[in-house]
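Teaching note: in complex prediction, the entire set of molecules is handled at once rather than each chain in isolation. The prompt given to students was simply: 'Predict the structure of this complex.' The entities are:
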Amino acid sequence: MSRLSATIDDVARVAGVHRSTVSRALNPQTQVKLSPETTRRVQQAARKLGYVPNAVARGLRTNESMSVGVVIPDILNPIFPPIISGIDSILRPAGYTALVTDIQGGQNAYEAALASLRQRRVDGLILATAHLDDGESFHRLHEQGVRAVLVNRAAASSPFPLVHGDDTGGMRAALDHLATLGHVRIAHLHGPEGLSTTEGRRAAFDEWSRQHPEVTVTASYCGPLTAEGGQEIMDALLDASTEAQSRPTAVVTGNDLMALGALRSLRVRGLHCPEDMSIVGFNDMPFADEFSPPLTTVRVPLRQLGVESARLLVQQLHGEGSGAMELTFPVTLMVRGSTAPPRG
Amino acid sequence: MSRLSATIDDVARVAGVHRSTVSRALNPQTQVKLSPETTRRVQQAARKLGYVPNAVARGLRTNESMSVGVVIPDILNPIFPPIISGIDSILRPAGYTALVTDIQGGQNAYEAALASLRQRRVDGLILATAHLDDGESFHRLHEQGVRAVLVNRAAASSPFPLVHGDDTGGMRAALDHLATLGHVRIAHLHGPEGLSTTEGRRAAFDEWSRQHPEVTVTASYCGPLTAEGGQEIMDALLDASTEAQSRPTAVVTGNDLMALGALRSLRVRGLHCPEDMSIVGFNDMPFADEFSPPLTTVRVPLRQLGVESARLLVQQLHGEGSGAMELTFPVTLMVRGSTAPPRG
DNA sequence: CTGTTAGCGCATTCAA
DNA sequence: TTGAATGCGCTAACAG
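The expected output is the structure of the full assembly:
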């Protein structure tokens, strides 16, 4: 930033003390060991020179960068700002800077992001990426001494703490709601296979349907977790069942963006939600209640997910290590305008 | 991250060369000066040891952190993810890491964020914060050799490049649209005073109204740039004009979140948009077209703002310095469902 | 309570 | 083409 900023030696010279004394005077931890008079003189000199401690040099010496890598799959997905905000609200007061890394493009970008963060010697990692197949890589990271927390995702057997919403309970609540309304043909429009959220929600869907033989699970479609993906697979679903008789009357989508796309698909075809099709989303992303119609969806406490994941990581970094564990937050079905009894 | 990672000396030992040779072999710039055989041996040793270069140590030596501070007022405002995404798409390929800092709480947090970023020795700054009164502080930063770009904001006299949308043109387009529809009583629900976007848009509003004496500008309300703020000041506006006769029939809001709040205010009172009140937002934030009704708003090319600001900063960092300059992007009025001719 | 000494890991200048 | 020496700015032993 400024090439010409004063160093600790400059301050020492002005204050007439040794650099180590300056270091002590400027560090709250060690400050107590100095005479108040010296402390005062040093701080005055520092202010006079506009001294800004060099965190890079300190990091090299202490082997702590006081930074944390936060890896997310897509910053344009509105569920992440609340999560990031929650993370930041814990990290910042604890003295850590979050290095938020959006990996947009998938696995390659993920590897690159990890490499970049390791070069920067982040003290820990908060991973919100959802690829299920990196369970093995987690163990490798763990063996290398990496501190990490996984958020908004599950994992087969994770050596790191897990923080996520109760996907199973959420899916059950959604399906119970639809069944109570009288729906007997329900589809699940889920996200890409291999994502932990996809698999977890789909497993819950399958389990529920086994327990409710009176309800026909007509189909399960798969697409990207975006509005475009949701629109495409709702199109496909509508195309597949030409006779309205056999068509599902309700769907649960993999997330709210997909639900949004499904709404668009209906609109384009002149169909109406909830009259022609009930839709339940997942997450309760910001503004889901402003859609037309307001989206019935499973609310996940996103900000809280962020807060707790950061808290767990800071604990690890402080050596109050909580190793493998799972923190599951209850979710709430928000019943709004996109669900209603089936027509007829 | 991993406490026990190999150093350049470890690699040197395994490869049977000196550390400086390792440094050269691993740096594309200096690699040419080595024999291919040596380069190969070093790289092989590095791979074998799982060597990860230490960016902290390099930063101390080179006085470059290869990081850039990105300061934003509120990550929960949906206009920022696209901007951040645009920034990242330039910074990352150029080798820089974005340190995104959300200052939520205003001026104190802003100062703290700047201090933190300076300690980390970021190479440059992208500022999306909008306080108008820090024009002076910009000059101070500039004199200290700080490299920076201001995005999504104007400034009285900035020593740094400015990248923003054409607020004046956007406001004019919005008002022309409303006038064409037949509105003759229009209000501007703007954001907090002292924000550059507030002042710019308000000035354009005032100028337009001077040129259109046939249109009554009944009032100008001020509140925070949030949905809650928008709802409050729409409430106030409706309370103030009890007789529907004198009430404005259309409003332009400071941003889309305020427009959203205004919509809620109407809904709570049993009024309808656009029948009882036309609303024009500003920015075209993600999902503004999904509101009920879909929001007529001024589209600002948010992602592009991010891209260009990052490009300008990287130029500065490469010494291809473009100093003070202003990059104004054209905006587009997106006419959707929230505007219509006034009733009667 | 304060000074001395040492070295974190790397890039770079100067020799050879 | 490679090796040797130096120091970026800081904190942490260890003395005194």
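Point out the following to students. The longest strand of chain A covers residues 216-222. The longest helix of chain A spans residues 196-211.
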